[in-house]
Design goal:
It comes from Fodinibius salsisoli. Keywords: Coiled coil. This is YtxH domain-containing protein. InterPro entries: Desiccation-related_membrane (IPR052928), YtxH (IPR024623). By secondary structure, the chain is an all-alpha fold. It has one domain. It is built from two helices and no strands. It is rod-shaped and about 115 Å long. The N and C termini lie far apart (about 80 Å).
Protein backbone atom coordinates (compact mmCIF):
# COMPACT_ATOMS: atom_id res chain seq x y z
CA UNK A 1 0.00 0.00 0.00
CA UNK A 2 1.09 3.56 -0.54
CA UNK A 3 1.83 5.87 2.33
CA UNK A 4 -1.30 7.96 1.71
CA UNK A 5 -3.53 4.87 1.77
CA UNK A 6 -1.83 3.66 4.95
CA UNK A 7 -2.33 7.07 6.52
CA UNK A 8 -5.98 7.19 5.48
CA UNK A 9 -6.62 3.71 6.80
CA UNK A 10 -4.90 4.58 10.09
CA UNK A 11 -6.88 7.79 10.41
CA UNK A 12 -10.20 6.07 9.84
CA UNK A 13 -9.30 3.20 12.16
CA UNK A 14 -8.27 5.64 14.87
CA UNK A 15 -11.49 7.59 14.50
CA UNK A 16 -13.55 4.39 14.77
CA UNK A 17 -11.68 3.11 17.83
CA UNK A 18 -11.91 6.54 19.46
CA UNK A 19 -15.66 6.64 18.85
CA UNK A 20 -16.22 3.22 20.40
CA UNK A 21 -14.13 4.07 23.46
CA UNK A 22 -15.92 7.38 23.85
CA UNK A 23 -19.30 5.64 23.77
CA UNK A 24 -18.23 3.08 26.35
CA UNK A 25 -16.83 5.61 28.82
CA UNK A 26 -19.14 8.55 28.15
CA UNK A 27 -20.35 10.20 31.37
CA UNK A 28 -22.90 12.22 29.43
CA UNK A 29 -26.29 11.30 27.98
CA UNK A 30 -26.27 9.23 24.80
CA UNK A 31 -27.74 11.99 22.63
CA UNK A 32 -25.05 14.45 23.74
CA UNK A 33 -22.34 11.88 23.18
CA UNK A 34 -23.67 11.10 19.69
CA UNK A 35 -23.73 14.81 18.85
CA UNK A 36 -20.13 15.21 19.99
CA UNK A 37 -19.05 12.13 18.04
CA UNK A 38 -20.94 13.28 14.98
CA UNK A 39 -19.21 16.67 15.15
CA UNK A 40 -15.78 15.10 15.63
CA UNK A 41 -16.34 12.62 12.82
CA UNK A 42 -17.43 15.36 10.44
CA UNK A 43 -14.35 17.36 11.46
CA UNK A 44 -12.11 14.35 10.80
CA UNK A 45 -13.79 13.76 7.45
CA UNK A 46 -13.30 17.42 6.49
CA UNK A 47 -9.62 17.22 7.45
CA UNK A 48 -9.26 13.97 5.53
CA UNK A 49 -10.89 15.49 2.46
CA UNK A 50 -8.54 18.48 2.65
CA UNK A 51 -5.56 16.17 3.02
CA UNK A 52 -6.62 14.08 0.03
CA UNK A 53 -7.08 17.25 -2.04
CA UNK A 54 -3.60 18.47 -1.07
CA UNK A 55 -2.05 15.11 -1.90
CA UNK A 56 -3.81 15.10 -5.27
CA UNK A 57 -2.50 18.58 -6.03
CA UNK A 58 1.03 17.56 -5.04
CA UNK A 59 0.80 14.48 -7.22
CA UNK A 60 -0.32 16.65 -10.15
CA UNK A 61 2.56 19.06 -9.49
CA UNK A 62 5.06 16.20 -9.39
CA UNK A 63 3.67 14.76 -12.62
CA UNK A 64 3.92 18.15 -14.32
CA UNK A 65 7.48 18.65 -13.07
CA UNK A 66 8.45 15.20 -14.34
CA UNK A 67 6.93 15.95 -17.74
CA UNK A 68 8.79 19.26 -17.96
CA UNK A 69 12.01 17.56 -16.85
CA UNK A 70 11.59 14.93 -19.55
CA UNK A 71 11.11 17.68 -22.15
CA UNK A 72 14.28 19.46 -20.98
CA UNK A 73 16.27 16.22 -21.15
CA UNK A 74 14.96 15.45 -24.64
CA UNK A 75 15.77 18.97 -25.81
CA UNK A 76 19.30 18.72 -24.36
CA UNK A 77 19.80 15.34 -26.03
CA UNK A 78 18.70 16.74 -29.40
CA UNK A 79 21.00 19.74 -29.06
CA UNK A 80 23.92 17.52 -28.07
CA UNK A 81 23.32 15.32 -31.12
CA UNK A 82 23.19 18.42 -33.34
CA UNK A 83 26.47 19.69 -31.85
CA UNK A 84 28.10 16.30 -32.42
CA UNK A 85 26.99 16.31 -36.06
CA UNK A 86 28.30 19.85 -36.52
CA UNK A 87 31.63 18.89 -34.94
CA UNK A 88 31.90 15.83 -37.19
CA UNK A 89 31.15 17.99 -40.25
CA UNK A 90 33.74 20.53 -39.12
CA UNK A 91 36.36 17.81 -38.59
CA UNK A 92 35.54 16.42 -42.03
CA UNK A 93 35.99 19.88 -43.55
CA UNK A 94 39.33 20.29 -41.74
CA UNK A 95 40.53 16.92 -43.00
CA UNK A 96 39.47 17.83 -46.53
CA UNK A 97 41.23 21.17 -46.31
CA UNK A 98 44.39 19.45 -45.06
CA UNK A 99 44.30 17.04 -47.98
CA UNK A 100 43.75 19.87 -50.42
CA UNK A 101 46.60 21.89 -48.95
CA UNK A 102 48.87 18.83 -48.97
CA UNK A 103 47.94 18.01 -52.58
CA UNK A 104 48.40 21.58 -53.78
CA UNK A 105 51.83 21.90 -52.19
CA UNK A 106 53.10 18.76 -53.96
Amino acid sequence: MSKSKDFTLGLLSGALVGSVIALLYAPDKGSNTRDILSYRLSTYLDELTDLIDKLSEEKASISEAKRKGDLVVEDARKRAEDLIHEAEDLLGSIEETKKNVANSSE
